[in-house]
Amino acid sequence: MLAAALIRKLEKFDRISDAERQLLERAAVRQRTVAKGEDLVQEGSRPSESLFLITGFAARYSLLRKGKRQITALHVPGDFVDLHSFLVKKMDHSVMAITACTVGIVPHDALRAISETQPHLTRVLGVNIAVDAAIHRQWIVSIGRQSALEHTAHLFCELFLRLQAVGLAEDYSFKLPLTQAELGDTLGLSTVHVNRVIQEMRAQGLITWRGETVVIEDWPRLQQIAEFDPTFLSLEVEPR
Amino acid sequence: MLAAALIRKLEKFDRISDAERQLLERAAVRQRTVAKGEDLVQEGSRPSESLFLITGFAARYSLLRKGKRQITALHVPGDFVDLHSFLVKKMDHSVMAITACTVGIVPHDALRAISETQPHLTRVLGVNIAVDAAIHRQWIVSIGRQSALEHTAHLFCELFLRLQAVGLAEDYSFKLPLTQAELGDTLGLSTVHVNRVIQEMRAQGLITWRGETVVIEDWPRLQQIAEFDPTFLSLEVEPR
DNA sequence: CGGCCCCTTGAACTACATCAACGGGGGTGG
DNA sequence: CCACCCCCGTTGATGTAGTTCAAGGGGCCG
């Protein structure tokens, strides 16, 4: 039952058998809660377990000298936050809790056992890593070649679909518990400029965003401005 | 013998047994040459085989309206260019030959067979995907929060180590067969500005770059300017 | 020999950053 | 329970890194 959110996410990629489901349930040996602002995983560490998000938002980030920060990934419930640490061993970045989080814990021993005996499940977990990479590539495109408004629109499109995929969005509305400063570190923009872009998006009737609730007011135009194509999310059930 | 470059690359991550080596050799059923400027793989396609680079440079890229282009990855000999297409099925970007290339071809059937019976080799191939993702994250950090000069310096550090890992660099020197326009599309900069940054790097005695040959003249300072930490490349043999 | 990349330079422009300041709301300590 | 304070969103003014436009020159290939 711990792994319910994770399984729902993996089921977007391919059908998961009952046997596989049970294996995942048993692999998630326990859970942990992490306070807002705390690190789930730290740069330089060599984790012996991987974490998936059950509730809350998390962010991978890197720090540079002069206090600059870049967020390289946002994670929502169901995401396997540091699955790659099983393969890559040493963390090259940290992961922090954007909100209070509960995470499921899967020991690397359990992942190894799955990789030894469960080729199909292993492939589906591989899809997870590959889709993370695809999202990274899209972010590179957006930071590199889109305007601040286009880029922001793109991120909203992406988050909406990802949250919808795990049942956390309805009626073009979802929770976005990020501050504008955190959004700036995600988009590679200053806080001030994020604020102006958001106001422009409101003025154009693209979105509303009050408190933690975002409503997409004009989905077709938001997609069009962002040049959004959902292919990179691989949200289609296929035999893998 | 076809897969020699690929195997050399994988051996940077972990020891590859003779049996695994032979499997890879047999999986690489044939090779192909691709002319400079041609696409190896096209966005929207559903490849039934994956390609690794034997010789030449290749780039993954996305196009935006108004003719803008962003390169999201550079590939050098030994790189498994679209291994992820085995898992993700539909390409969300294209891959082009920066120079004339020869590529080895591995049918997805062969990759599936490996995934069914070769857990260790499957994990090592997974490292390949995970390291690609780590490089993507580093690019996000560099585009998002570094100056043009810092970012360029970082890319040169990365390329030097990656080329050195496959025996294509010596004495702080390597071949970089990119035009300044292509480098701009890689860094998210205009051609004009790339030119000015390169000149600044030359003026500071960091590098020389004549024709296709780059020489790193001051490796410690180049790394320091770039805030370069090679951890993300995972170039250490470890049991995986 | 001609044409076309590719590198280079100059000048003008602009998207976004930086600096500074203020108000409101929610949590905390007295 | 109230007061304070800090975080967060917001706004204005100014600064600048990088873009865009334009043009020339050199080398290589057909």
From TrEMBL, chains A, B:
One matching Pfam family: cNMP_binding
Domain HTH crp-type span(s) in chain numbering: 146-220
SMART domains in UniProt: HTH_CRP
UniProt entry keywords in alphabetical sequence: DNA-binding, Transcription, Transcription regulation
InterPro entries: cNMP-bd_dom (IPR000595), cNMP-bd_dom_sf (IPR018490), Env_Response_Regulators (IPR050397), HTH_CRP (IPR012318), RmlC-like_jellyroll (IPR014710), WH-like_DNA-bd_sf (IPR036388), WH_DNA-bd_sf (IPR036390)
Top-level taxon of the source organism: Bacteria
PANTHER family: CRP FAMILY TRANSCRIPTIONAL REGULATORY PROTEIN, DNA-BINDING TRANSCRIPTIONAL DUAL REGULATOR CRP
Protein name in the entry: Crp/Fnr family transcriptional regulator
